[in-house]
Amino acid sequence: MAEKLVVIGAGMASGRMLEELFATAPGAHEVTLFGAEPRGNYNRIMLSPVLSGEKTYDEIVTHDAAWYAANGVTCRFGEPVTGIDRARRVVVSATGETPYDRLVIATGSAPFIIPVPGHALPGVLTYRDLDDTEAMIAAAAKPGARAVVIGGGLLGLEAAAGLRLRGMEVTVLHLMPHLMERQLDPAAGYLLQKELETRGIRIHTRANTHEIVGRERVEAVRLDDGTEYPADIVVMAVGIRPDTGLAKAAGLACGRGLHVDDRMITSDGSILAVGECVEHRGQCYGLVAPLYEMAKVAAKTLAGEPAEYAGSVTSTKLKVTGVDLFSAGDFAEGDDREEIVFRDPARGVYKRLVIRDQRIIGAVMYGDTADGAWFFGLLKDAADIAEMRDTLIFGPAYAGGAPLDPMAAVAALPDEAEICGCNGVCKSTITEAIAGGAGSLDAVRAGTRASASCGSCTGLVEQLLAASLGDAYAAPAARPVCGCTDLTHEDVRRLIKARALKSMPAVMQECGWRTSCGCHVCRPALNYYLLADWPLDYADDPQSRFVNERNHANIQKDGTYSVVPRMWGGITTPGELRAIADAAEKFAVPTVKVTGGQRIDLLGVAKEDLPAIWADLNAAGLVSGHAYAKGLRTVKTCVGTDHCRFGTQDSTGLGVAIEKRMWGAWTPHKVKMAVSGCPRNCAEATCKDVGVICVDSGFEVGVAGAAGMDLRETEPLGKTATAAEAIELIVAFVQLYREQAKYLDRPYKWVAKVGLDWVREQVVDDLENRRALVARFDLSQRVFQKDPWAERATPETEARWRPLADLTLEAAE
Amino acid sequence: MSGWIDIGALADIPVRGARVIRTPAGCVAVFRTAGDEVFALDDRCPHRGGPLSEGIVHGRSVTCPLHNRVFAFETGAAERPEEGRVATYPARIEGGRVLIDAAHLARRTAA
Ligand code: SRM
Ligand SMILES: Cc1cc2nc3c(=O)[nH]c(=O)nc-3n(C[C@H](O)[C@H](O)[C@H](O)COP(=O)(O)OP(=O)(O)OC[C@H]3O[C@@H](n4cnc5c(N)ncnc54)[C@H](O)[C@@H]3O)c2cc1C
Ligand code: SF4
Ligand code: FES
User: Fold this and answer.
1) What positions does the domain Rieske occupy (chain B) (predicted)?
2) What is the fold of B4-110?
3) Side-chain half-sphere of A641: how many Cα atoms within 13 Å?
4) Is some CB atom of chain B closer than 8 A to the CB atom of A796?
5) Which of A112, A360, A637, A784 has the most beta carbons within 10 angstroms of its beta carbon?
6) Which residues contact residue A549 at a Cβ distance below 8 angstroms, ignoring those fewer than 6 apart?
7) A801 Cβ under 8 Å from any chain B Cβ
8) Among A86-95, A359-368, A415-424, A749-758, which stretch is predicted with the lowest mean pLDDT?
9) Which residues lie closer than 8 Å to A5 by C-beta, 6 or more apart?
10) What is the Å distance from ligand 3's center to A637 Cα?
11) Confidence bin at A399 (pLDDT 50/70/90)
12) Neighbouring residues of A14: CB distance < 8 A, sequence distance ≥ 6
């Protein structure tokens, strides 16, 4: 019979332990997992990117409902364990008692709160879990809000950087003379402080907090020297304490943490413990790498296999985008130690190795941490560095002689070199996985866990892939937007929203563009994202648009333009046709063609003539057909109930109504629609971005069809009884596409990425969300639904559309 | 024709944009960069004649609107790996006006 295993704490250590356990002894345990947080296991260390807006919570979930179900784990999230009765082998929680054969305590640690006056005021936060993170994000949403972060260690600085990126005014108070004093020496601490200050974070070192001031809630923080910093929130990040409350109450042996032996067993043989709550050989840990090692050992112990944990050497990286620092080991000065220092002030680079008996015992690097993994390997192996001492500081590339490029440096790493610090994955594990068929970053992650936690080794893993596979390595699917940045379209869209970036310079600055004003690839994309996300704040930039959208006509191969007026749903009148005929004659249009989109194209118009031909067409009530736009193109219709003996609904009327509601909207790529009056589908609605088929009982709305370079049939989005509801559904779908898709992805490409199910959840099932999407679309239309021809059929545009000067006459003189 | 000719106000050329001037030997595109420099190049892409004046201007280059070749303003050369070059003409700004070197334009006409 399966052993009853109860686990207290759904954190990083227990999640990893369960994975190891199910892999080692599948089906041997019937697991109940208690978590005080109302959610399952997630990657806690990635809360910082969530705070800064670089990731979403969904992206950091490590185990989802499907995983628990597949492994038969009974989840009791949001239900803290309040007691352990060791004699009866039960744990106590709100719903009663749960019996165990064996118990694992993985309660992590609790943030330490300095007991100054005012520490209990609303607005004093800690930084430990998602709720804390969300509280900070909420506080940052208030314009002009101020945060004081107490504690200039890893957590405090990640909190400060995230809050700053969200637009808060941030002050960091640090007791010691320099930041991160446990991981950095003063020189690196200084460089770090300088860097954070240039990002607009105020840093006050040697700051002794006297009192948190406030009546109803936090108002300010006062220091011993009387300095006062106003604050809307105070984030306490002064340290953590192993959470041993339960263990102590149950009479388990505890020191600073809960005592365990090398097999992770506590003073009670049927109780194990892993994670930050543990004290092992006098040592408590606050980073994930040791916890993962503990998790592995605990899983083996539970499975009845021999395993021993011998303690860990840890290294630290700060996860603040653009700040490169690395530290490991012991770097205090001492008589028995020597040091090697390298500085490049111009680049802000600082590297220091501390050496004892020809072995590296500590390393601190700032500004250029590429060799961190190599030094850390030498440190952990206690390798003798006497031979390479002279060039040691220049890293592995130099160790053999001439400097090499980064690819060669990675190739030169020894097999045992640790690549992923979080998961303790060494180079050979990765190269073996690659040789075994893992040809992508995701495959390596899945197979080895390398780069699956904090992600700072992703670059190294990619270099290994490239070095091992050569040309066969198709660089990761997530391609950067262009050569100006390493960020993907998705990253950029998220950052624009999360950091409320409302202008092109803001995006380029905050996202670290490498070029001064972008290029023809990124600028149109950014221009679109900005106007889609901030219709009221952002001013469209014509110079960031392709020629067609700038000139509101399609450029032809000979530099002339084509002009396509709108014909709502393909319906026209003798008057309109006459106006088109007149314009064609007046401007000597060489070709008049019926398009594939049920309207008429006037091809071969000179640029200078555009404003005048627009004026003539406008006078007859014709407006731009946006045949050139990444926007709504045509809504094709069939004759429907008006004339057709098979028509079931007014397909023409619906097509016209949709086109009238949606024309002028800019979208990531062009959007074409059609409405057919019955399933005979004469409007070809089943190969459009959005297509409606009318049936007796209502309207079948399909999406994500295509009939260009790819041929796709639409997939059903939903069915509605009324035309009005069909329109709402379509508007919501298009708005979701406008907000989410990558520039130049047609709806079918975007839907393939996010999944139609998700789209349905957003626009079909969630009515409130549907309404909100429609409201946002309508708001945007208030700004953008204007005929661009009418706006430009003016003498002023005519002048701008003509040459600046005509020198042909002068030359003739 | 000699010396510098005034072809118009700087303000009439959009920032990161261009205007054309008509000459007996075809159009010349006059570009204005984000940093308010001006450059004059033939308005005909050596690939298939695309009007460079309608391209997107970035840094000191323009991308042809027809098939995306990129040309450097200083040299008129296409960015590698593409080949080809367009003629460039001296242009400068004086008191808010854009001037172009007529001698060079004349030489072009003669050629
Ligand atoms: C005029 C027209 C052809 C015609 O004479 O009928 C046309 C002309 C062009 N199409 Fe089209 N397409 C026209 C209907 C279509 C259709 C049929 C339809 O809309 O029912 C399709 C297939 C349906 C679809 O889009 O899924 C179509 C698929 C494309 C594609 C491929 C899109 C794709 O995602 O695969 C392109 C290329 C692109 O957009 O990147 C394209 C691009 C073009 C461009 C804009 C090429 C360019 O960038 O210069 C052509 C502009 C010519 C001009 O100056 O007017 N055209 N094009 C049609 C205008 C319809 C209208 O009234 O607005
Ligand atoms: C913002 C942030 C950034 C970090 N960045 C890094 C980093 O870059 N690198 C790194 O190595 N480490 C980092 N850490 C540290 C790392 O997250 C921890 O070392 C790790 O999460 C500890 O794992 P754990 O399972 O021991 O504890 P936790 O992950 O904290 O899990 C313990 C869980 O137990 C629950 N619990 C407690 N008591 C009970 C109870 N009585 N009943 C039920 N459930 C209970 C808690 O609610 C919690 O969910 C970071 C931590 C934070 C907060
Ligand atoms: S199919 Fe479309 S893009 Fe191709 S030549 Fe015809 S009009 Fe141009
Ligand atoms: S005409 Fe310029 S790139 Fe083709």
Assistant:
1) 5-100
2) Rieske Iron-sulfur Protein (2.102.10)
3) 11
4) no
5) A637
6) A542, A628, A629, A630
7) no
8) A415-424
9) A29, A30, A31, A32, A100, A101, A102, A103, A104, A302
10) 22
11) low
12) A7, A33, A41, A104, A106, A274, A275, A295
What phi, psi does A168 have (nearest 5°)? -80, 160
Q: Are residues A230 and A262 in the same domain?
A: no
Pair A130, A219 in one domain: yes
User: pLDDT confidence of A345, banded at 50, 70, 90?
Assistant: low
* A706 and A668 co-located in one domain: yes
Residues A413 and A399 in one domain: no
- Mean pLDDT estimate for chain A: 91
Looking at the complex, does the CB of residue A334 fall below 8 Å from at least one CB of chain B? no
Pocket of ligand 2 (CB under 6 A): A 8-14, 34-37, 44-45, 47-48, 80-81, 106-108, 127-128, 155, 158, 243, 246, 275-276, 286-289, 291, 319, 422, 454
Contact A106, A14 (CB under 8 A): yes
Cβ <8 Å between A557 and B55 = no
CA A627 – ligand 1 centroid, Å: 8
Q: Which residues of B touch A543 (CB under 8 A)?
A: 14-17, 56-57
Provide the shortest C-alpha distance from residue B33 to chain A (in Å).
10
Same domain? A105 vs A128: no
Closest C-alpha among A442, A497, A494, A450 to residue A473: A442
Domain that holds residue A93: 3-109+242-302
Report the candidate in A433, A435, A458, A453 with the shortest Cα–Cα distance to residue A443: A433
Q: Which residues of B touch A806 (CB under 8 A)?
A: 21-22
**CATH code for the domain of A433:** 1.10.10.1100
Residues of chain A contacting B71 with CB distance shorter than 8 Å: none
The predicted complex's ipTM stands at 0.75
Per the structure, the count of domains in chain A is 7
Q: A552 CB near a chain B CB, below 8 Å?
A: no
